[in-house]
Amino acid sequence: MTKYASFAHKHDRLLYMVRVTLVMGLILGVVRVFNVPYGYWALITAVTILGAIPFVGGVLSKAKQRIAGTMMGGALGLALFLIPPEYHWTHHVAFFALLIAAMYFTQEHYAYAALMAAVTIVIVAGGGPADFEAAGWRMLNVLWAGVVAVVVSVFVFPAKATDEFLFLLESFMRELNVYYTQHIESAKQGVFKPAHADRLNTLVDKQQSILPHALKESGVHTPALNTILLIEKRLYAELEALISAQWDAQQGKDEISELDGLINTQYSLAMQFDALAQQISNKEVTAVDQEDIGILNLTSDKIAHPKGDSRDISYFGYLWLNREMARQFAQLTVVTKKVFAYQ
Question: Sorting pLDDT into bands at 50, 70 and 90, what band is 128?
Fold first, then answer.
């Protein structure tokens, strides 16, 4: 990772507060110095755009939807003032219909934009036919405050969701190495105590939550990031099946423990997991060919089988889980290399 990316990752909360302080200070200063009418809407805009999501992709998405929703709601609300004041009941009925329609679209893809449209309709036209002044000022304040929030988020200590996604991928590979190595050590001693890879699950959940924001930052990474997360989910599912199964109760337990060729290649695969984590940290990923992974080159004549052909289906299931993890790992190195090729 770049020095700044590492610095931003370590001090994410501090840098977030620097951006928030700068945006709020600028907006509050403009509102107070120029006595901007309805200036509190500018502050509300900054709070909603910067709140909860610190990443550039999230800020851009929320700012775009908030501004678009505000403009749409403002336009609809202003349209109600074309109704003559003497037809005030028509104004109220039309206002109610527009509000319900906007709320209907809050359950669609652009839910936040629809919500902002509904709020704006209420602010602009909810006071009745005479409440006209709030309309223009609300739209103006949302617009300039949104621009300030976006500019500061992009240019002042920006937090990239893509960088955070790759940090989590690095952590995922290190944790995968730890869990897998622990399993190998236990299997070598003939002990198969069921365990669960909870930390891996937590990392995948975090990546899933920030993936939409990472995709907003750069379309170049879109296919690769989606594929990386899909492979991680597969690796987690296969490792979970491997370490949580009660192999002690299977007929092939003893043979698994005595497979010297398998255990050596398992250790080699675990080291490759850790090597990929280090490569991600250095931003120099090398694609691994399946032919370079020992466990995928094992054949029956290369593995010691002291009990001949007495192996049951659980034995082959155990081999399949290990080999499938190796295949997914090889694919992961190829896709991850593509991400860094564009950086």
Answer: low
